[in-house]
Specification:
- By secondary structure, the protein is of the alpha/beta class.
- It has eleven helices and 16 strands.
- The protein has two domains: 236 residues, P-loop containing nucleotide triphosphate hydrolases (Rossmann fold); 96 residues, Rossmann fold (3-Layer(aba) Sandwich), CATH 3.40.50.
- Helices cover 34% and strands 23% of the residues.
- The strands form three sheets. It has a nine-stranded mixed sheet, sandwiched between helices. The chain has a five-stranded mixed sheet with strand order 11-15-14-12-13, sandwiched between helices.
- Helix 6 links the parallel strand 9 and strand 10.
Amino acid sequence: MRWYAFLLYPFALIYDLVTRLRNWFFDLGWLKSVSSPIPSLVVGNLSVGGTGKTPMVEFLIRMLRKEYRLATLSRGYGRKTKGFLEADPQVSPDELGDEPFQIYQKFGQEVSVFVGEDRVNALEKIAQMSEAPELIILDDAFQHRYVMGDLNILLTTYQKPFYSDFLLPMGRLRENRAGANRADVVVITKCPKDLGTAERSSMKRQVASYNNAKTSVLFSSISYGKPTPLADSFSFSPRIILLTGLANDQPLIDYLRGNFELVEVMSYPDHHEYSEADFDRIRTTMNQHASLNPVVVTTEKDAVKVKSNAPTGFLEEIPIFVIAIEVKFSPADELALAQLINKKVFKKDNI
């Protein structure tokens, strides 16, 4: 916790009161929750980002796309449009939002991608389509209590689990830790690959103190793909300048330092809109390290913004490579998640 956090405690108390009242109103039925008209998975967290929601959504798509006609729905954070919108070949990242656009680019032939801040209305429209999805993934909807999903998946990071975090503005929680009791399954994300049994058991016990003891607790790690060129004319170099706009880029920094020569890190806030000044900075940084012949490495989410906003000729001038981030579960935990989906969403006891 930051050294001055205790000064923010009164504001955290006010924030806690407001969010508790909101949840209480939903619990009493004064604020109305409606069931999704389409079988649904809710993916979300209690914090303000960096738990790996988009990689988790992509994992679920890979897991389920062969069995069900899938769709995703999010509010499209950061987009410059309003209302309900379905992704198509003409849509831009500015219209859709960078994360939904990333999903559409990767899975658009297999998955319908929708955005809409009024998710109740959006779900009604999707359900009325001639080829409505058989299963929809609601991205970042854990606190959007106007819609009740069939399976609530709560993500929290190994590095900063919700049970050791604090409410805004002291910490990063958007609601009290007790909100975890709405989860059907808690996934501890970004775990080290050598996480031991004793530590897993300890984390499960701490989650259970805020949740139903029968709630499943699963563990996932991050896997990074081979960097691929954003433009085809460049060869990869192991000397890297990292460009990110993530809520928490430390795991990626650690991975690159352990596998390549990380020359410099250019970090921006989550969902950063890259400007002309940013592209000038990238060009200047590359020139400063020209003797090393480096390449720029960025994430898939950032690559969407870079490709969309880059000035003419920039992508042909600067070697930019994209690194994919994927979620990995142990075979046992992946099977447990599949069984939960079948049991809770499709009312099947076995797979």
